Amino acid sequence: MHALANKTVTDQELPLDTGYLIKGFMEYRNCYSIMMHTSTTSKSKLLAK
To answer: Which domain of life is it from (predicted)?
Structure first.
């Protein structure tokens, strides 16, 4: 990984599984933040009652 750090890495240069891991992690993080946001808003709605 240190050799890749010096230059810009495109998707084609990455090993296939690494690209999938990064994409999967980003999607997971997006879903997680959306879920957390939804749960906090629904909690505040319940508290507002």
So the answer is: Eukaryota
